Amino acid sequence: MADKKAGAGDTVVIKKYANRRLYNTATSAYVTLEDLAKMVREGTDFVVFDAKTNDDLTRQILTQIIFEEESRGEALLPVQFLRQLIGFYGGQMQGVLPSYLEMSLDSFSRQQEQMRGQFSKAFGAAPGAGILDEAVKRNMALFTDAMKMWPGFNALTPGGPAAGAAAEPKAPSAADPLAEMRRQMDEMRNQLDKLSKGG
Fold first, then answer.
1. Where do the H-state alpha helices sit in the chain?
2. Maximum distance among all Cα pairs of the chain, rounded to whole angstroms
3. Facing residues of 29 across strands?
4. Could you give the 3-state DSSP secondary structure of residue 56?
5. Pairing label, strands 46-50, 12-16
6. pTM of this prediction?
7. Tens-digit pLDDT profile for the chain (199 aa)?
8. Contact of 9 with 42, CB cutoff 8 Å
């Protein structure tokens, strides 16, 4: 793949070399994971390729950025959430979970933007940190409640069914498991809508 210079709205190409150095082809400069984290926060889209094999390393680099942020005390992911996430690898719901998490985080982001807009209209400025913190806590509670509605998360949540115990199947639909998953996704969307409107 040829190097791509970044214009407005273009995806920046980052090349990773054998010495672990990352090279931004748009600025013709070496960058760090911290620089890439800043690009994410600024909304700059980028992809990372291995300079020799041209393999796409974007997922690994983004995961590495999260690891760096978590290890320097910027903990965002609760331990129980990480345990639950690991539990889904190799499971039946592994294919569905990414789109569900993406949908949930997208909904969360939209709510934050709406709230900032409402505060700006009401006060003519960004909201105070305390008020925003309360809203974030409320949204995280909504997200946690929504995750508990997902059958797989209940099995891994303290107070839910024991991990080793066989879960009682509720009206199994062996004929069409995909239809059952769609039904559950629709149910969760409705619950999320109700929770966000009620909150």
1. 33-41, 58-71, 79-88, 97-123, 129-149, 151-156, 177-198
2. 59
3. 24
4. strand
5. parallel
6. 0.52
7. 333 344 445 899 999 998 889 999 999 999 999 999 999 999 999 999 999 999 999 999 999 999 988 888 767 888 888 888 888 888 877 778 888 888 888 888 788 777 777 777 776 655 555 566 666 667 666 666 666 665 555 544 444 444 444 444 445 445 566 677 777 777 777 776 776 666 5
8. no
